[in-house]
Amino acid sequence: MSETKPLGGKVVLVTGAGGGIGRAIALEAAKAGAAVVVNDIGASLDGKRESSAAAEQTVTEIEKLGGKAVANGDDVSIQEGAQAMVRQATDSFGRLDAVVNNAGILRDCFFHKMTYEDFDAVVKVHLYGTFNVSRAAADVMREQGSGSLIHMTSTSGLIGNLAQANYSAAKLGIAALSKSIALDLQRWNIRSNCIAPFAWSRMTSSIKVDSPEQEARVNRMKEMAPEKIAPIALYLASDEGADTTGQIFAVRNNEIFLMSQPRPVRSVHRGEGWDLDSVRSHAIPALRSSYVPLDVSADAFSWDPV
Asked: Which stretches make up the Ketoreductase domain (predicted)?
């Protein structure tokens, strides 16, 4: 990989790039030589459209650095919006080499209080948004015979979290979607990977603080800059990342993790088959020691970031 312009000649579309992680990746991609389509609808944290200025501000920053970028205000949750942003990439720059599916909203609340509308809105932006943009990009990338799709998942989905059933369901769905994309599109040299980012951003700033432990956790997160996520994203978008697909990474300050994916943990067999009594007396006692605990992301990442 060239030390100067590892993404020279490439075109990268970053959704939700008006701020936070998306903005950081867009800026770093431009510094690495890519032409960038900066997508952001300028929505509030819960998804209500406010202003398109955020995308334009990121474009201005890129141009001040001497890079090339265009702003896009289409909605990832709408199929036509995803198609329009991909079309803008090819109209503006002639191709599309990488997509970073970063756009997201939050509507956190406990499951027994969650409305259909709050579940639907979050899944539409995160899961449907990832599908819509990836599906539109896939047509371009298949014609090119190459491409990289990079999706933001979350340990809230991979491990678990309180009061985020909508967000967790969408983020775990994205991990499964990414694996299917990787399998289906490998014949065209299109790869698909996930990143679970830990970083202080507009979304994490909404975390409720109602205990000293949560306050300490939030203070630790404030130390994790969005720029820390960019290097792995740039690698996955680059030619050097061509042999990496179907993987899930997590980035936590200066740590990069390769995350596990579900596989059988333990099994029991009974030649004559199972009935309720034998499941109760034999199967469950044998399997119980391997149960996955009812933990949350903070339990799995219990040490201070380094």
From this structure: 10-206
| Spatial separation of the C-alpha atoms in residues 173 and 127, rounded to whole Å | 7
Residue type, 164: Q
Contacts of residue 104, Cβ cutoff 8 Å, sequence gap at least 6: 16, 125, 126, 129, 152, 203
Domains observed in the chain: 11-258 (3.40.50.720)
Instruction: Report CA torsion sign: 181, 186, 187, 190.
Output: positive
The overall average pLDDT reported for the chain is 93
What tokens does 163 get? Answer: 């009061």
N residues, the chain: 306
- Reduce the DSSP state of residue 298 to 3 states and report it: helix
Sheet of strand 248-252, all strands in order from the earlier edge strand to the far edge = 69-72, 35-39, 11-14, 98-101, 147-152, 190-198, 248-252, 255-258
Among residues 1, 41, 35, which one has the least CA distance to residue 19?
41
pLDDT value at 220 more than 80 = no
Q: Give the model confidence (pLDDT) of 21-56 as tens digits.
A: 999 999 999 999 999 999 999 866 665 655 669 999
Which residues have CB under 8 Å from 79's CB, separation 6+?
132, 135, 136
Q: Which residues of 78-109 are buried (b: 16+ CB within 10 A; e: fewer)?
A: eeebbbbbbebbbeebebbbbbbbbbbbbbbe
Phi-psi region of 94 (alpha: psi -120 to 50; beta: other; left: phi over 0): left
pTM over the 0.90 mark? yes
- Any idea what the Cα angle at residue 9 is, between residues 14 and 184, rounded to 5°? 60
Measured distance CA(114)–CA(125) in Å, rounded? 17
Taking the CB of residue 152, how many other CB atoms lie within 10 A of it?
A: 24
Burial class (CB in 10 A: 0-12, 13-18, 19+), 149: buried
Active site residues: 167
